Amino acid sequence: MQKPLAYRMRPQTLEDIVGQKHLVGEGKIIRRMVDAKMLSSMILYGPPGTGKTSIASAIAGSTKYAFRALNAATDTKKDLQIVAEEAKMSGTVILLLDEVHRLDKVKQDFLLPHLESGQIILIGATTENPYISINPAIRSRTQIFEVTPLDEEEIKETLLRALNDSNNGLGNESVQIDEQALQHLSRVTNGDVRSALNGLELAVKSTPCQSDGTINLTLPIIEECVQRKSLTHDKDGDAHYDVISALQKSIRGSDADAALHYLARLVEAGDLLSINRRLMVIAYEDIGLANPAAAARTVTAVQAAEKLGFPEARIPLAQVVIDLCLSPKSNSACASIDAALADIRIGKVGDVPPHLKDSHYQGAEQLNRGVAYKYPHDFPNGWVSQQYLPNKLTNVHYYKPKETGKYEQALLHQYCKIQQQKKK
């Protein structure tokens, strides 16, 4: 039985990896490890299909070390012992341990001395946050790297590579894929390479040849194979971003009916990832300090939608869209950080005042670090007048409060009160 396309197209060297340039690009950490032949155990974490296994196999291919793959949940201590014996004989084995967050204490205790000796280079793969889910004993012996979803162009590059590869891919098939179909497949899989390749392979294998022997993949075929509808068959392929933009602008404009319309179009397309991400952006960018509780409710609704999946996810999403539409609006937090960043980027920085500098080291007092600092908690109302901004920015005001919600009205009152005390 032939292995799946996603398996066959797995990178053999670091040069074959598409995406993850922050880890495997020229001069980046994993590339440096491989080039220097100084591998250390690591944990790769990120969403499914983003290349964790691919990086592990590429590291093994680039270093010529033996490569073994196990699953922490289903494989036993005996399986680990076999790998350890092989490591004793060959010198070093790279062990990809999937679902590493489910490694129990017995297996962990067995692995630790082999990690210490360097006989086993562990590459743990997990979708869970390793700082929360991985045992500290393992975590302290590994470097932790985040693997991110591929962007649309990187997915497209991978698909075209598979279509042209005659050894491992679909290059021996005469496949013609419409640009709209390729774009849809690259977009709706949300950075999951495995899903994109699986959808492509199903489309090729299940589509009858034309009279000239070619397999023509159209947008409806791809929609069926990935079970995700295109928002519209527009020529330029901008509809996806247009609808997301319209959703945000409708919420910002407090039009609940329009926002629900655009939400429904995204729900029908099955694009939960884009919906969730955009709603959280909206909650903090457009509602912000006018109603911080709405932001918290948005995060809760997004988490519920992720756990429920479609079709039920539509319910908490609709609820939070209505909530955000009819909430008071404020972009003051977004505008204030952007104003501060604008100053930083033109070099308007200035030195940190001496009394604010770190004083927790020997000799700091002689350097006048932190000497004149006034501890606000020692003063009535927890406030004391002292300079915090650098000298060249003492009169700058980044935060400009709005009065569109009770919460920010209270912040405005406190902000003005502090400014008046400063003037005194």
Automatic annotation (TrEMBL):
UniProt entry keywords in alphabetical sequence: ATP-binding, Nucleotide-binding
SUPFAM superfamilies tied to this protein: P-loop containing nucleoside triphosphate hydrolases (SSF52540), post-AAA+ oligomerization domain-like (SSF48019)
GO terms of biological process kind: DNA synthesis involved in DNA repair; DNA-templated DNA replication
A Pfam family annotated for this UniProt entry: AAA
Species: Vagococcus entomophilus
GO molecular function terms attached to this record: ATP binding; ATP hydrolysis activity; DNA binding; enzyme activator activity; single-stranded DNA helicase activity
Gene3D superfamilies in UniProt: 1.10.8.60, 1.20.272.10, DNA polymerase III clamp loader subunits, C-terminal domain, P-loop containing nucleotide triphosphate hydrolases
UniProt entry tagged with the keyword Calcium: no
Protein name as annotated: Replication-associated recombination protein A
Domain named AAA+ ATPase: residues: 38-150
InterPro entries: AAA+_ATPase, AAA_assoc_2, AAA_ATPase_RarA/MGS1/WRNIP1, ATPase_AAA_core, DNA_pol3_clamp-load_cplx_C, MgsA_C, P-loop_NTPase
Record family assignment: Belongs to the AAA ATPase family. RarA/MGS1/WRNIP1 subfamily.
